[in-house]
Design brief:
With 97 residues, this protein is of the alpha+beta class. Helix content is 52%, strand content 14%.
Length: 97
């Protein structure tokens, strides 16, 4: 594959199509569109790509170290996995029955 073919394939990627849409539809610069795409990708990885185990949910919470009384809109937020139901819980409930 020559260089021209490679560049053409890169420009046809889902990433580039999305970035081009942000450029044309919303007037974002190339840098802004790339940054937004990267941020959306990280968000999707945190929430939808197997970071949770069985019996877990993902919640967005205020980061450790944020002072009490600070408005939530100014707080740093992080995603955490909460275990709702664990295999040990099931074993304990079966053994006590």
């Amino acid at each position: 594959m020559n260089r021209k073919e490679l560049e053409r394939l890169v420009n046809k990627s889902d990433r580039q199509l999305f970035i081009n849409d942000l450029n044309t539809s919303f007037g974002l610069s190339q840098v802004e569109a790339e940054a937004l795409y990267d941020r959306i990708t990280l968000f999707n990885q945190d929430y939808y790509e197997g970071t949770r185990g069985p019996g877990q949910i993902t919640k967005t919470v205020v980061a450790l170290g944020e002072p009490a009384g600070k408005p939530i809109k100014y707080c740093q937020m992080v995603s955490v996995n909460l275990t709702i139901c664990d295999d040990e819980d099931l074993e304990a409930s079966v053994s006590t029955s």
